[in-house]
Amino acid sequence: MQELMALAGVSDVYSASNDLFKAFLGIDMSVSQVYRVSSVLGHQINVDLAQEVSHPELLADEVIYGSMDGSMIFTDQGWQEVKVGRLFSSLRRREAGQKEDNQTRFRLEQSTYCAHLGSSEEFIPLFEASLGHYKNTPERLVFVTDGGVWIQRYLEENYPLATHILDYYHAVEHLASFSRTHFQKAACAAQWLDKQRNYLMVDGIDEVLSNLEGLSNLSRSAEESRREVMGYYQRNRHRMQYSQFQERGLQIGSGSMEAAHRTVVQCRMKRTGLAYQRAAVERTGGSGHAQSAGSS
């Protein structure tokens, strides 16, 4: 029963827990009971956070994808960032139909998550624990992330033999932001952006940088935007070899990371009119790691 109470406590706001018990079990359950059980189990989980997650041995053609990022939630101390990490095997990635742009949609059958409300220094040991023995085969690791400086520094310093990929769609969004700032007509912005996206996909980062540099008559805001995107690309060019990555059969987007934030953090903790105490966040999912099957 305590497991069910804890599940109700992390699945929805505490005030809704009695509705769940009433609907599924036909019994009444006080909100305070659910709160107490969730608190106790949450504290117990915190004790076990440093233990490494157990993973099966890697198969011959298997690689492990890893991503991490942060999202904001509102607490009694103001807006705070919850950092989330996600790991999954290339063999757990399945086709699931087509997107609107005719690209293949994938779903993940199993993932390992870790999350922490706090600093990167506090989060990194959790991510290390979630990696388990995968740390011993860094050449089989593929990290797909955005341009976060602390993320890139940590991963490249600790896993230089891994494959490091800048999320393609994040890279394109920087170009899209510039194009909206520079071009007055939406059609011109879309046409220019489409060409640059194609260059990026075929390792044409130098062509993109040249095209950016060749633009003239920029407004002050467009000039600032161009300087930002060019610096961003130059810092990350070694992570933008997209055609080579795709030839190896690797994914180049981190949409799974965005889905992780919605699943692990925002579904429970980012709701209209709610502000959590920091300690309550840690009890209901703001710190820890877990494995999940049937994830998106």
From TrEMBL:
It comes from the Bacteria. This is ISKra4 family transposase.
